[in-house]
Amino acid sequence: MSHRTFSLMIAACLFLYNACGERDRKGDLRFSAPTMKEISEDATYSKEDSSRANWPERFGFGKKASTADIIALDIDIGPDGKGLPEGTGRVKNGMLIYRQKCIACHGATGKEGPYDVLVSKGESDKKAIGNYWPYATTLFDYIRRAMPFDAPGSLNDQEVYHLTAYLLYENGIIDSMSVINARNLSKVEMPARSRFVLDDRKGGPEVR
Q1: Pure H helices in 30-90
Q2: What's the whole-number average pLDDT of the chain?
Q3: How far apart are CA 149 and CA 113, in angstroms?
Q4: Are 128 and 119 in contact (CB under 8 A)?
Q5: Is 166 inside a domain boundary?
Q6: At 116, is the pLDDT very low, low, confident or very high (cuts 50, 70, 90)?
Q7: Residue span of the structural domain in which 135 resides
Q8: Are 180 and 89 in contact, with CB atoms under 8 Å apart?
Q9: Is residue 151 part of a domain?
Q10: Helices 91-101 and 157-170: angle between axes, nearest 10 degrees
Q11: 128, 60 in Cβ contact below 8 A?
Q12: I want to staple 94 with a disulfide (CB 3.0 to 4.6 A). Which of 42, 162, 175, 188 is the partner?
């Protein structure tokens, strides 16, 4: 920093310091708190200024959500299967879709990666559908919401059902002839179900 710049900064500080106060009889600078009258005038001005704002009822942003808009976003599926759409899933159909849209990320058998391992029949310590997921409905929900990675949400409900059936089969949970749908998916017994318990603690925020 140059000497000239430093001098200008000092001068500016002194100017502000003197401008913010007033001097007493001895010439010393003193500061005074605002009077009640000043506070009252400020409050009155703020109140009047707010009432004069005359905000419009609407600002013209967005639109009212239609029933179709709400349905498109309200897609969460609970463990009891509530919210599952109509449709059926077959293992052989799911295998074909998997080879087209999933193999690049999860490998030919769901074990190779490079991304998450999907298949485990208990012989692996890696968390996968067969040894970690407690509910089959979560599988449907996640695939529909987030897969495939490069085009999440692009699968239709029928494709999601087929993929769900195929992955359940590959994990040894259902047989090759099983057909899943909105009525029986929540009844599929997942191997890891017993590893999860409901939070029944008391005395704080209760999550169910």
Answers
A1: 36-51, 67-73
A2: 82
A3: 13
A4: yes
A5: yes
A6: very high
A7: 84-195
A8: yes
A9: yes
A10: 100
A11: no
A12: 162
* Domain assignment of residue 6, yes or no: no
User: Which residue, 76, 61, 91, 86, is CA-closest to 165?
Assistant: 91
Q: Within 10 A of 190 (CB to CB), how many other CB atoms are there?
A: 23
| CB 29, CB 18: distance < 8 Å | yes
Number of domains, the chain: 1
Instruction: Please state, in angstroms and as integers, the Cα–Cα distance from residue 130 to each residue in 3, 13, 59, 64, following that order.
Output: 73, 70, 51, 43
Does residue 137 carry a pLDDT above 60? yes
Ordered alpha helix ranges (H), the chain: 3-19, 36-51, 67-73, 91-101, 103-106, 129-132, 136-146, 157-170
The region that residue 146 occupies, defined by phi over 0 for left and psi between -120 and 50 for alpha, beta otherwise, is: alpha
pLDDT value of residue 2: 61
How is residue 76 written in tokens?
Answer: 């969460």
Compute the distance between CA of residue 66 and CA of residue 64 in angstroms, rounded to an integer: 6
Tokens 């890696």 appear where? 126
Cis before 148 (ω within 30): yes
Pairing of strands 22-23, 179-181: unpaired
Position 77 in a domain: no
Asked if pLDDT for residue 106 goes beyond 80, the answer is yes
CATH code of the domain covering residue 121: 1.10.760.10
Q: Decide: helix, strand or coil at residue 89.
A: strand
Q: Determine the Cα–Cα distance for residues 122 and 191; give it in Å rounded to an integer.
A: 9
Question: What residues does 88 pair with on adjacent strands?
Answer: 181
